[in-house]
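Subject: Protein entry, chain in single-letter code together with its fold tokens

Area: Proteins and the way their chains fold up in space.

Attached in line: The record itself begins immediately under this heading.
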Amino acid sequence: MIRCIFGVLVAMAVLVSGQAFAAGQKAASTAGQQAQVSAGNNTTTAGQGTTAGQGTTAQRQAEVEGQAHTDVATRLTAEQRERAEEAERAALARARTAADSVRILYNLIDLEVDAKDRKGASEDLYQLAVRTGRDTDALCALRYLASATSRDDPQLDSIMRVYSTRAARMPKSADQRETQTFIEVLRLQKELMTMPEEERVPSLKLKLGEFANDNKVDVYRRIEILYTLCLYLSDRANSQLLDDYMLELEEILDKLPDEPGALKNHFYVMAAQSYSAVGNYGKAVEMNRRILELMAKLEKKYHDAGRKYRSYVTIYFSCYERMLGNYPGLEPGEAEDIYSKVLELVRTEPVVANMYNMLGASAAFLAMAKGEYAKAVPLLQKAVANPRNYYRKCQLLRMLVDAARKSGNRAALVEAYEEYTPMLETRMAATDAYGIIEYEILHNVNELMETNASLEAISLRSRQEANGRVRLWMISTIAALLLVIVVILYAYWRSRKQARRMDESNRALTRERDNMAKAQRELIAARDSAKRAELQKDDVISTLCHEITDPVGAIVGYSQLIVDSVDDKRRTAMERFSKIISLNAELVDTLVNDVIDTVQLETSKVVLKNRMVRMSELAEIAADSMRNRLQPGVTMEVSPIEGADPDITVNTDPTRAAQVLINLVSNAVKFTEKGHIDVMYGQREHSGRPVFVVQDTGPGIPRDKQELVFARYEKLSTASQGIGLGLYVSRLIARLLGAEVFVDPDYTDGTRMLFILPGEHFKN
């Protein structure tokens, strides 16, 4: 016991002395060092603001644009920048303290526009920081060096491994571990930029095999695994799988310390481009907004800390252009506002003007956002032909196909399809290959992690049991000796008897505990198996639905091309066949959308975007979308309920509300062979809540089945189109909106559907 107490006192003395030494070191630092370290501790963050943030996932764009680094030096003329560099180098030669030298080296790094020119100052910063024990600045310099290494360097792999080894030799800390992980992620990403497509799948399999064969299970190893999956699956996998990994990675990164923040900043840029590549425009816009907010904070922070050359103008431009490229995720009118910001940067920043002229995609994105498809076609053709846009060629081709189809430019459509179709085929094949490898090897990785955790738990339990047995033995021995002295043989016999009883009870309790633990493990395994099965089912459904859409669209496009290419004698017949194909394609698209909506709604992945919208506008949208499916002789009218204000507005998600109305009108059109269909809107007589009414003169719904039709996969007739998801999805969306959808039981001239919105969300 005395030795234990002595050991604790020694440990406390060492800790206190260490803290006193650290405090003395900090007090001895100059004011200049404090100001620089305040900025330099986040140099990782600052370094990531440009070098890590723009130079990792966004490095595809940055290197193509010829700018891997952004600062206020871009606003200087070449002569002004040269004079500033000469002044800083002269000041460096006169510097007397390490703090002054560190500050000047940061200024030299910020002054360099080209990444390769920044490596010299970054190497000097690293060597100085190592000599003077400035671990934070040394790690920051390593991140600068890694970000500045060109992906075209033939010695890329060996250079990056040198930087990783340097980071590994630094004293262990969260900053050190994050820097090492950041360099490894950046090395992999730079390799992927130049890796041929046929080598990517074997490379992924080899990389995940390395993860499965090592015994590292810490959080940074998990981050490296998730980054690897996201980098390989970006541009190639379905959005559901990528979303899952992105979400898990974001949750882990949010739990890391705010300093240095290199991985977190890198994640936002990678996520913005990955979500854009798979068509998740809302998430892509959200990630770019986060980057803009972060850059504004960093710019102010570093200017306040005295880094006068620090700026992020080209990152702003890159974010604005990516947001324009994801125009479906923008609010109405937002695209014009963003484009005006782009033009302002072009006007005031020469380097941005150069990037704008080289890439030439911003104007095309704006035209698509405004629906000016004829104007967008030549702009997109020029952007597709530009080799600097190779990293987003698939996105540009997808837009070109859409613009050519909607503008009726058949020649451009054929040309775009000839280049886009092979790219889609390659992407589909890669998606399947990545999915198979991912499930196969990642399963092994997770099993390994679970096994290691289980072994650690068993080892800990064994040590605890051994210590317990030792303590029990000591107590029993002392008690036995005392009892022998006091009552001799009688007390000794009684103590042994009691010990045997206690031993039997312990064994019984141990068996019961082991049985309960075994049952608990079996229940947990069964639960996890059920969860994995459910997730795999949703993944498979989402994958199939996403992969069906593009081929069906291609079939419709080629069918119209066939019609346009035949002579007049066969044109009428071919047009009829083309209409049949288009109609069936619309049915398939409806089924696919219903399945996707069902999965998203059931897993709570739908985000509402409420705004004020006229009820008449929603009713007209629903009616217009179904008019071409009306039976001959059937009419459809849209009108307000008698006495209702025709301009009444509601605060709701217009897209989701319109989806419910379209499903209701679609059902009415499907079952009405004669008569008319009325789409009405207004307010309920008693409650005053806003309501949409869709009524028809069809066969109606029996009273005992008016609730059954809202169940999943339920249809009144097996001969009718669809799979029974339309009304089920409508009710799910209605509940999400706080609304109600039901059949009016009092209507007997057909079917009347009521869609009632919340009463507090409207105004006249």
Confidence is low (pLDDT under 50) at residues 1-74.
